[in-house]
Specification:
The protein is about 50% helix and about 10% strand. By secondary structure, it is α/β, with parallel strands linked by helices. About 35% of the residues are buried.
């Protein structure tokens, strides 16, 4: 695992750089969020031996065959990239790893950086454009490195980069740890969605709605609210507190408008039915399957575990019990 981690981390971090844009230092180290530092080989070995169970893990049973679904969070701390014992056992049982997107596919990563044909160009008022650029500069990101992206995608990357102040980074998301092992073992890796699906969830069809979402998100970014919410989400995930995640809309203070409610529905519930159907189809192919998707997809009336039950699976929580 140590050698595999060392060999694959540069490639995966390069992919993460495409997702997070080109990170460019333009201010002193004292004012920039600290860049992520992977564990040393010795620390990695120690952390691997002591990795606890984190997040959420369910076992599926249908037609006499098992599968596993794991609720992850898309950022992490250096040791979070290592699976705990139960997740490791699930991976050991599997021949296929299914992620929201197949992050091992260079075409998928390129597609995430390209304009979405179904969405028109969003022209920002000068004051909003300046606020977006200032938000980038405050995180030591060159606004020019973001310019080709839709403004909402720019802001989503800046929101993730805020997590670096709290030791959280997309380079240490659990999907990447699972992906490293899957590639090293020669397992099949597949996506539950296409890049267009995720981009259409992130970007509303209405430019008026997109402007409102951008305004609301900038307010939250500038106030520090988004950083607090990301930190609380990460802490709740780490301790396996699904009840806390399920009440996200009540405590985040970020779902207080019709636009925000529409955004959350688009990002979460609206995607779950298709993901459940894809999981069911992969299982019917005879795959020994481990699925890893964001933990918020396991909350609400259209939670993935509920939809998978409707697909004929018996669903048993393995962690937390």
């Amino acid at each position: 695992m140590n050698r595999l981690f060392s060999r694959l981390l540069p490639t995966l971090r390069q992919g993460g750089a495409l997702l997070l844009t080109l990170y460019a230092t333009v201010a002193s180290a004292q004012t920039c969020p600290p860049e992520p530092q992977p564990l040393s080989a010795e620390a990695l070995q120690t952390a691997q031996a002591q990795a606890p169970n984190r997040g959420f893990l369910w076992e599926l049973q249908r037609e006499g065959r098992r599968a596993y679904v794991y609720g992850s969070i898309h950022v992490g701390k250096p040791d979070w990239v290592l699976p705990g014992p139960l997740l490791q056992q699930a991976l050991d049982h599997s021949d296929t790893l299914a992620l929201e997107l197949d992050l091992s596919d260079p075409q998928v990563l390129r597609s995430l950086m390209q304009p979405l044909p179904s969405r028109s160009t969003l022209k920002l008022p000068p004051t909003l454009q300046e606020r977006l650029q200032q938000a980038a500069r405050a995180l030591c990101v060159s606004p020019n490195s973001l310019a080709a992206m839709h403004p909402l995608l720019q802001l989503s990357q800046l929101s993730l980069l805020q997590g670096r102040w709290d030791g959280l980074d997309a380079s240490f998301g659990q999907e990447l740890g699972l992906l490293m092992q899957a590639l090293g073992r020669g397992l099949r890796v597949t996506g539950l969605e296409q890049p267009q699906t995720q981009l259409e969830a992130l970007i509303p069809a209405s430019n008026a709605q997109a402007l409102q979402e951008l305004q609301d998100s900038l307010d939250q970014l500038e106030s520090g609210q988004q950083r607090e919410v990301l930190r609380e989400l990460a802490e709740a995930w780490s301790r396996g507190d699904l009840k806390r995640l399920a009440s996200y809309a009540q405590w985040c203070h970020c779902v207080d408008s019709p636009a925000a409610r529409a955004q959350l529905q688009r990002l979460n519930d609206a995607r779950n039915t298709a993901m459940a159907q894809r999981i069911s189809a992969l299982h019917r192919e005879g795959r020994n399957l481990l699925v890893a998707v964001g933990a918020l997809h396991f909350t609400g009336p259209k939670a993935l575990q509920t939809l998978l039950s409707a697909q004929g699976f018996s669903v048993k929580p393995l962690w937390p019990r």
